[in-house]
Amino acid sequence: METIFLVIALVFYLTSVILKLILPERRYGALLLILAALAHLGLLIARSVIAKHPPFTNIYETFLLLPFLICLRMLLWPKRHEGNYGIVMTFVASAFMTVALILPQAIKVPKPLMPALNSIWMYIHVPSYFFAYMALMAAMVYAVMVLIKKTPDTQDAKRLDEELKISFFFLNVGLITGAVWAYVSWGNYWSWDPKETWALINVLVLSYVFHLKTPTPRKKAWILIITVLTVAFTYWGVSYILSGLHSYT
Amino acid sequence: MKNILLRSLQILSIALLVLLAISTFLPLSDDPGFLFLNRFYDSPLNLALWSLLAFMLILAVLFNGVRSGKQKILHLALAVIIVLFIIDKSNNERFFITIREGETIDLVEHIGDHGKAIRLDRFEIDLHEDEASPRAYRSYLTLDGSQDVILEVNKPLAIGKYKLYQSAFEQHYYFSLNIGDEEYELTFGDSLETSAGKVMLDDYDERIRHFRLSINGQTQWLPLNADVGLGGVNWSITPLEERFSSVIEVVEVKGLFWLLFAGMTYLIVMALDFWKPRKNREEK
Fold it and tell me: How many domains does chain B have?
């Protein structure tokens, strides 16, 4: 059931990208995006029922949830995602879904939650990071647009700023709610666990954007790209290379 | 002054994040190594750099390095969070206690007047459907012989200024050791003072079905469920049942309220600063 939903959603995403590219009338692409979102929602519900927990506890589930948030965002704020930006974001969502489809079965098998994860804080801490990652994905697209153009577009620069603020805010929410949750579970706000340390590094790197002497869109774009790399390492690199309290994959 | 502060803050945060990043790749070692990188997280250098960062945040507020009121509050809240973390790491008392089912531990010995006598009546584990991994586990405790409480993961128990956390559990097989007419109860690793001297249960060899004991420092093998004459006295060892031990972490709580207050202030003010109300935006 889960794989069927995944394939249907992926087909809708890819068709939406193709239609947006070949048809000047964009509404067919938008309609397919709605269908993709519905299939994607079905997929997340099916996964939650099978796993008996919300779909954000391992790498595979990340590849399912993140594109859904990207899609939801495009549907809720359609004006912001018009034109090429919407096409790129839909393509990014499709790429995530493709990776989710081809991941080895062993990674997809749902694992029971350890007792410390059975907490209300999981529903605040983890989604905060997903909102941050979603904004980072969007910011990444604007950052690339800012960097490839000789004179950065004002609209791109403005939207890059907005996405930077969203991602910085939610990275901070994740960090602080994580500290509170750690206190509730272990009586310790902070353990210098590799994941925690790298989460802090992400905030430190991104905070540089707000402490530039002469903030230009290009400088911000480069800092954003470095942040995306450190976040990617925090999520995947730390999980597979460095062990610690957050080794749930 | 503003430029010097900004440049110093940039250099400091880069130094911190580089040192922190490198330290995560190095194995923990008692030898601190170059720049304390083997144990950077609890090194004086880490503490000093974070203290300096907090100090610079305060300086930035005092010397108008940040101009808007919201950003001043934001930077002060961040400085308070850093200081509270440092205080928490430096001063808070924390230790583990392990209580077996049926056993009582007097916390007064550990934390003085705040302590209570804690008895573990029973330990319970809920398993996931795979019947292998625990979904939740909890200790049924009696405090001072009268107050029944349940201690569970994610549900700490407050005793005065201390909190008790359900940290982990251990499973032990218990055995009945009979020396003549005397009967003792023990598990692996236990050391008992008996009429025959100091006895310790070391191991069980499944292949030959014999227990290895240390009696006054001498190794002796005893068969499972059979009498053996040692020093003119009959010795026997028989299995009893499996019992749990609850591992509880006792933590002195300091500054939680202020940390939550500073954390909430930091997030709320950041949100207000980033997304100004529409009216203000229009006025601008």
Answer: 3
pLDDT of A243 higher than 70: no
Distances in whole angstroms, Cα of residue B175 to Cα of each of B102, B195, B203, B225, B228: 15, 18, 12, 10, 16
If asked whether residues A78 and A176 sit together in one domain, one would say no
pLDDT at A47 (0 to 100): 94
Question: Residue B98 CA to chain centroid, in angstroms?
Answer: 12
Mean pLDDT along residues A114-142? 92
Residues 137-176 of B with CB under 8 A from A: 137, 153-154, 156, 163, 165, 167
Taking the Cβ of residue B135 and every Cβ of chain A, the question of whether any pair is shorter than 8 Å is answered with: yes
pLDDT for A152-170, tens place per residue? 888 889 999 999 999 999 9
SS3 label, residue A105: helix
Domain boundary among A113, A131, A165: A113
| Nearest chain B CA: its distance from A110 CA (Å) | 11
Measured over the CA atoms of residue A134, residue A137, residue A138 and residue A140, the dihedral's sign is positive
Domain residue limits at B24: 2-92+254-283
Statement to judge: residues A246 and A132 lie in one domain: yes
Are A185 and B165 an interchain contact pair (Cβ–Cβ within 8 Å)?
A: yes
Identify which of A189, A201, A242 has the shortest CB distance to residue B20.
A201
Per-residue model confidence as pLDDT tens digits over B37-51: 777 887 888 889 999
Residues B22 and B69 in one domain: yes
Same domain, B148 and B182: no
Q: Which of A34-48, A209-223, B129-143 has the lowest mean pLDDT?
A: B129-143
Q: What is the reported pLDDT for B277?
A: 66
Are residues A189 and B156, on separate chains, in Cβ contact within 8 Å? Answer: no
* A92 and A130 co-located in one domain: no
Range of the domain at A108: 1-113
Residue B128's pLDDT band (cuts 50, 70, 90)? confident
CA distance A212 to A209: 6
Same-domain pairing of B82 and B99 = no
User: What average pLDDT does chain B have?
Assistant: 87
Same domain, B165 and B218: no
User: Which of A113, A132, A152 is where one domain is finished?
Assistant: A113
Which pLDDT value is given to residue B5? 85
Q: What is the pLDDT of residue B278?
A: 57
Contact call for B165 and A176, based on CB within 8 A: no
Look at chain A and report how many structural domains it folds into. 2
Query: Which positions in chain A touch B156 (Cβ < 8 Å)?
Result: 184, 187
CA dihedral sign, ordered B228, B229, B231, B232 = positive
- C-alpha B239/C-alpha B188 separation (Å) is 12
How far is Cα of residue A63 from the mean position of the Cα atoms in its chain?
8
Average the pLDDT over A112-135 and give the result: 91
- A66, burial (CB in 10 Å: exposed 0-12, middle 13-18, buried 19+): buried
